[in-house]
Amino acid sequence: MEPSHKDAETAAAAAAAGDPRAASSSSGVVVQVREKKGPLRAAIPYMPFPVAVICLFLNTFVPGLGTFVSAFAVLCGARTDLPDRHVCCVFWLNIAAALIQTLTAIVMVGWIMSIFWGMDMVILASYKEQGIPQQL
């Protein structure tokens, strides 16, 4: 139910008069949303932006190839959203994602997944470049 124009005027007049209840009713509510990532999605490394774009390009034309290349970025020290897992485990998770993309590309699912995976790499790289903190 939408508040009427008269209700808004009443709230504004009460806020101007110093009524603390009116100020709280007209103030906004901040909601925080956290994305829950599965282990494969959380294993995508934060790479430099040009490398992420190359991986997206590779994933677009050869499904799974960019994801395979990104697995080696983990071995070179790229950060992921799985800080509690060992580097080798995260490497193998990325290899598994690349194999899933390659094997299911025949039915188009892997090809689409591969493109979205590459887009996620670019998005994570832009977060890293801009210094935007990511929450787990």
Residues in helix, % = 55-70%
Uncertain runs are 1-5
How would the global form be characterised?
globular
Strand content: under 5%
Quickly count the helices.
Answer: 7
Secondary structure category? mainly alpha
Mean pLDDT: 81
CA(first)-CA(last) distance: 35 Å
The count of β-strands is 0
- SSE order, as H and E? HHHHHHH
Report the C-alpha radius of gyration, rounded.
23 Å
The largest sheet is: none
In short:
By secondary structure, this protein is an all-alpha fold. The protein is built from seven helices and no strands.
Which helices and strands occur, and which strands form pairs?
Blueprint: H1 5-16, H2 20-26, H3 39-42, H4 49-61, H5 65-75, H6 87-103, H7 109-130
Structure description:
Helix 5 runs antiparallel to helix 6. Helix content is 63%, strand content 0%. It is an all-alpha fold and 136 residues long. It contains seven helices and no strands. The two termini are 35 Å apart. It has helices spanning 5-16, 20-26, 39-42, 49-61, 65-75, 87-103, 109-130. The longest helix has 22 residues, at 109-130.
